[in-house]
Description:
four-stranded parallel sheet, 17% strand, 42% helix, seven-stranded mixed sheet, elongated, alpha/beta, 16 strands
Amino acid sequence: xxxxxxxxxxxxxxxxxxxxxxxxxxxxxxxxxxxxxxxxxxxxxxxxxxxxxxxxxxxxxxxxxxxxxxxxxxxxxxxxxxxxxxxxxxxxxxxxxxxxxxxxxxxxxxxxxxxxxxxxxxxxxxxxxxxxxxxxxxxxxxxxxxxxxxxxxxxxxxxxxxxxxxxxxxxxxxxxxxxxxxxxxxxxxxxxxxxxxxxxxxxxxxxxxxxxxxxxxxxxxxxxxxxxxxxxxxxxxxxxxxxxxxxxxxxxxxxxxxxxxxxxxxxxxxxxxxxxxxxxxxxxxxxxxxxxxxxxxxxxxxxxxxxxxxxxxxxxxxxxxxxxxxxxxxxxxxxxxxxxxxxxxxxxxxxxxxxxxxxxxxxxxxxxxxxxxxxxxxxxxxxxxxxxxxxxxxxxxxxxxxxxxxxxxxxxxxxxxxxxx
Length: 421
């Protein structure tokens, strides 16, 4: 089978190209520019175009079909040549569906959280030795490529993106997958360049729910009002399962999940990630994963790339990278960081107040001496009173800092060495 990719450099497109190459397809492609990591990965498999640009000469009659990426425009020279030669042109979501018609399709959708939940499910399945096909838009540790297609696996796990399929197919990608099992993590108006208002954007998720196969299952986040309303209003003959926030604690600067197995240390943190974990757990249950297996696997999940990803940890600082490209995602990420390091933030604030009132006390002491020098006895007494009050407040804050530091030492808290600017 011979396939050509127009806009092969996209995050999903280049992964699909590599997957088909591994499957034995004869793969070619074009793009006007390709960035990392797509470039290196395509080069590794001998799929990197020798020259950037669009070339009609690449569109040969021997090509069985062309997969069109969203980056390519409707007047793309290669696309027009394909029309001229009557070669079949499809988007990659269409192709994914065609390849998975006989499988149980699990589609994870939502304005935020879909990448992380999909990654969690894939991580757990991989840890449990359960083979499944998959498509994910972010890199995940333990996986060479983020698209995997076989003829044998029963399940396929798909990240359901609500953005348009291609320049010639204006349907959102997740409308094409027809899931047997679907999940919606949240709805927050996004992609305003193609969805002019929130109602139009929400309508895309309603259509997604309507595309679930009869007898299928919908898993939804009950914490999101729009998601809950759409899910409850859905009249499809499907089973509905809701999830919310699991019980957890933050101890020693680390998040622990409270379960029947006890307190489980996690490598992720933040309310949004804990909620995502609940959704992933339900999906894994539907696939056949027992709770014990899920918990044993999820504790080693570090997160997908660019999702609260720890880039550098040192004694005095922590650098985190996050792909928060919309206001709701920025808010969730900021809230997670503040909550995770709340104890440390309190310590820094107390130290600042201690130093500030100590400095005021020192200043008032100098002014007292100056007032005495001017023989202003009453003024000197007032200023000295302020000096004493400032020093008392400073001492109170200092004692509180000693208490927190002592507790930190007793608990061996690692945040003793962390600095917040």
